[in-house]
Design brief:
The structure is a single chain. It contains 3 helices and no strands. The model has no long low-confidence stretch (mean pLDDT 95). The chain is globular, with a radius of gyration of 12 Å. It has one domain. It is mostly helical.
Length: 71
């Protein structure tokens, strides 16, 4: 059984991911992806496996965001 923290973290990841893909405005989508990236960082800090949660298209968008920040 997963802890309440892990359950809420997973729900937050799914909600941020869904919001990022549903956003009509690119800026709004990026804001949701920023929240998603922060939740994924938090999950990583607590050794929570999120590989099955993040869709490939969203993962690619997150990678593009990271690349744009490193330029």
């Amino acid at each position: 059984m997963e802890s309440q923290f892990v359950g809420e973290l997973r729900r937050g990841i799914i909600a941020a991911q869904d919001a990022s893909t549903a956003a009509a405005d690119p800026y709004e989508a990026q804001l949701h992806r920023s929240r998603l990236a922060e939740l994924l960082r938090l999950a990583d800090e607590h050794d929570v496996d999120t590989t099955a949660l993040v869709r490939p298209d969203v993962s690619a968008a997150l990678a593009a965001d990271r690349a744009a920040l490193s330029e």
